[in-house]
Every structure is written in structure tokens, then in C-alpha cells.
Amino acid sequence: MNRHKIIAFGIIAEKIGKTEFYLENIATTQALKEKLYNQYPFLQTLTFSIAIDHEILQEELTLEENQEIALLPPFSGG
Amino acid sequence: MNHSPFSFAFLQGAITPTHIAEIVQQNAAMLTLGAHSLFLGQVRADEKENGSITAIEYTCYAEMATAQIQKIITLHSTQYALKSVFIYHSIGTVAIGEICLCVAVGAAHRKEAIEACQSIVESIKKEVPIWGREIINESTSIWKTNHFSSSQ
User: Fold this and answer.
1) How far is Cα A38 from Cα A31, in angstroms, rounded to an integer?
2) CB spacing of B129 vs A75 below 8 angstroms
3) CB B130 to CB A75 under 8 A?
4) Which among B65, B121, B146 has CB closest to A76?
5) Which of A9, A14, A78 sits opposite B129 (nearest CB)?
6) What pLDDT, on the 0 to 100 scale, is given for residue B148?
7) B86 - beta bridge partners?
8) How distant is the Cα of A77 from the closest Cα of chain B, in angstroms?
9) From the CB of residue A34, how many other CB atoms can be counted at a distance below 10 Å?
10) How many cross-chain Cβ pairs, A to B, lie less than 8 Å apart?
11) Edge to edge, what strands does the sheet with A20-24 contain?
């Protein structure tokens, strides 16, 4: 069984009410998204990126142990 | 202050005139530098539905933001043959009228300095995981959105 730590920022952290949580048994980024949309339906209506180990996800990947997964709403620095 | 002429830091709260003066001072030692281009972002008291903005509270994904900004510095330094790049971004609360972003670029000539400075500011706004929450009052805030039209 694998277990991934997900960290959330900005409006996503605010809406889910926490900055980190864990998801179990997600083998791929497709599975990750399905689980996220299922658990937090508001994500389907929000624009956000997923970063795996600080790299924005560009194509679907197989997830590995100990990767840092982050949910990033649109950036608004400056 | 960091003595590398290519450096970035998150600063807690507003960026002060002293921080900016130190950059000018540090560039004074670089005798092949002939042009500074400086961008300062200041928090505006924009009018919103429920009142006007009083401050912006910044949060970031620190490790990724630092890595992204280092990439932006490296890319621009090479492309524009820059002599120095100093970037400060605020974290935490910055009140209206205060400075939240400083991009200071040094080059041999003005064209490279000005173009690189503008491109770095655009890259920071687009590519770096930092979020601003616009504070109206104690109970009201709005997540800031960045726009990329010619008026921004």
C-alpha cells in the first residue's frame, strides 16, 4: 500500500481547511486527480496545477514513494 | 546582505528603502556595470465590492518558489549578459503604500537591463508559487489574481 502526502496552498488550503493531508493507494496522476475530485468536488470548478517534487505536472505519470505532491492555485505574487 | 551579485530572498513584511539602497551600494563595486533597472511593486488601495484593500498577505511554496526564481535568474543572466540580479519578495503582511516586490537588474548597457528587468517581473508573476490575499478588513479578504494584459 502506498501513501502520499499532499500539500495545499492558497484558496485550496482555505477551502479544504488544511494545508496537508494523505491519500492512499494512488498509483498514477490520473488516479490522484480522480480521488481529489471525488473527495473535494470544488476542485473540478477551480483552476489549479499539480506539482510533483516542485515540477509542474505536464503529462500523466506513475507516482512513486516519497514524492512531494502539491496543489497550486493560480499564482498571484508581485 | 548576500554578497553574490545574483541573489534572491523572501523578506518578512515590507521591503524597505534600506534594502533597495544596499543593492545600489553593492552594484557600485561592479565596474563593468553601466545600467541599473529597478522594478518595485507597491500595494495599491484598490476599491473592491466590500471596501478598499488595506494590505496584502503573501504566502508561498518556499522550496519550489526559490527553485523557480533561481531558474529565472540563471536564464536571464545568460540571455541578457547581466552583471547582477537582486530579487526580494515579501512574505506575510504588506500594507498599502509599502513595497512587496523588488527586482533590480544590473547590466553593461540600458537595453539589456530594462528588457531583462521587465521579463523577470513577468516571469515571477507567472511562474513562481506565491499567493496574495487582499485584505479589506478583519473579516473580509479576496484571493488576488494576476493579469497579463498590457495594462498590468
Assistant:
1) 10
2) yes
3) yes
4) B146
5) A9
6) 84
7) B7, B104
8) 5
9) 12
10) 67
11) A20-24, A3-8, A69-72, A49-52, A55-56
Domain, as residue range, for B74 = 6-143
Closest by CA position to B64, among listed A63, A7, A25: A7
CB atoms A77 and B101 under 8 Å: yes
Distance from the B144 Cα atom to the nearest Cα atom in chain A, whole angstroms: 6
The answer to whether residue B54 sits within a structural domain is: yes
How many structural domains compose chain B? Answer: 1
Name the amino acid, one letter, at B7.
S
Q: What value does the mean pLDDT take over residues B52-59?
A: 98
Judge whether B71 lies within some domain.
Answer: yes
With 60 as the cut, is the pLDDT of residue B132 above it?
Answer: yes
**Which amino acid, B143?**
W
For B91, nearest residue in chain A (alpha carbons): A77
Q: Where residue B20 sits, what CATH number does that domain have? A: 3.90.1170.40
Write the residue in B127, B131, B146 that is nearest to A9 by C-beta.
Answer: B131
Residue B148 lies in a domain: no
Ordered DSSP codes for B102-150:
EEEEEESSHHHHHHHHHHHHHHHHHHS-EEEEEEEETTEEEE-----ST
What pLDDT band is residue B151 in, cutting at 50, 70 and 90?
Answer: very low
Q: Does A58 touch chain B (CB under 8 A)?
A: no
Q: Is residue B129 in some structural domain?
A: yes
Residue B92 grid cell = 506575510
Delineate the domains of chain A, giving CATH numbers in brackets.
3-72 (3.10.20.30)
- pLDDT per residue over A58-67, tens digit each? 999 999 988 9
